[in-house]
């Protein structure tokens, strides 16, 4: 039989050795007005643990997938950006525990970040790309999208709502991991919110399921389940190294081909279930 360069456990253990948990910004990391509104607590308090977690990609192939019940049966449900739930429950479920947002959601008026119900009463984690070698302070004074004003306003208006900011060096750590396991040179842009979600949940879940992230039998040109826009690059990547990160996620999966390509999800064992 063919020898693979790295087996499933080695791959998982390599990620674990590089990144035990995804780090978020702490007050002591930065100065300026934002410092006062950074939450005191870590994203997950000590001993927080979930059995089955699910990451709901926003892929067009979720449309008419009937995966809603499967999604809601998980103990934690992670969604992205402005992906809606209302009106799409049959396909995407109705529960939301966490939303990962890119900084465009906070900085572009079209998303109505401070007023939309999508961003209330769920835990939030936002990321914004830094340059590969910039320090935290350099990045926060000149982020890719100006999210600071919205972040401060939101934290002041809803101080009880959990809302953390990713330490952007994590994006490059994940990028190094993906490039390190890819035999061709990939674009030097951070992985998508989808791959970040996987790395974020692995320490806290026994199983991380990811729906319609690896293209399935339902895949069409449709970009998102919630819009008719057609663009295959949403699935295979243009700015993010999507194709490369998806191959790595597929290598981390333990579900059968039927589950992946017909049922529509991969299952990755959490760090508590691998022995390194
Ligand atoms: O589209 P987006 O991603 O919000 O999707 C969230 C995650 O779902 C997975 N996905 C999505 C569509 C698809 N056909 N296949 C998929 O696998 C990906 O893992 C993706 O990360 C992002 O990653 O934050 C992204 O955000 C959008 C956009 O900013 C937001 O939707 C807000 O409108 C980006 N698009 C643009 O900037 C034009 C996208 O590149 C990445």
Structure, described:
- With 276 residues, this protein is of the alpha/beta class.
- The chain has a single domain, classed as sialyltransferase cstii, chain A.
- 30% of the residues lie in helices and 13% in strands.
- It has eleven helices and seven strands.
- It has a seven-stranded mixed sheet with strand order 5-4-3-2-1-6-7.
- The longest helix has 12 residues, at 169-180.
- The chain starts with 7 loop residues before the first helix and ends in a 7-residue tail after the last strand.
- Residues 57-60, 80-82, 102, 104-105, 192-194, 213, 223-224, 234-235, 239-240 line the site of cytidine-5'-monophosphate-5-N-acetylneuraminic acid.
